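Ligand: adenosine-3',5'-cyclic-monophosphate. Inputs:
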Amino acid sequence: FVERTLAIIKPDALGKAEEIEDIILRSGFSILQKRRVQLTPEQASDFYAEHFGKLFFPSLVAYMSSGPVITLVIARDKAISYWRELIGPTNALKARETHPDCLRAIYGTDDQRNGLHGSDSYSSAEREIRFFFPDSIVEPIPVGE
Ligand code: CMP
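Predicted complex:
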């Protein structure tokens, strides 16, 4: 069934945005919304609030606000899990060993600057899409169809 998810092309992968968008389209997604944004540290903290308190949180916030990012709402059958599979494991360095074809292996840098983000569940997809596209009027996607 068709789902939406939020993808982010992070600062370290921004130079490859066109190439990545081509791959997204060739992988059967449609791009429903797209925004290029420069996050403030406050916005980056808000977006990653669930990681507050972790050792890597301050540098994650600094990284995500270090330059523009491209946020995309993408849709296809099983978009959430499929996009996560396509981007691969969090750590881009390890991904190069274990999943050399995944997008983080190709476009990411290390365990933090991993090039791409994908929502990890239906509820985070809904929250993250609203975070970047608060004004968009979207039909709720029926669950389990
Ligand atoms: P993302 O999937 O966007 O969600 C949380 C982000 O935190 C993750 O990608 C990485 O950018 C970063 N992150 C997760 N784990 C670590 C870690 N162990 N060390 C540094 N950064 C991390």
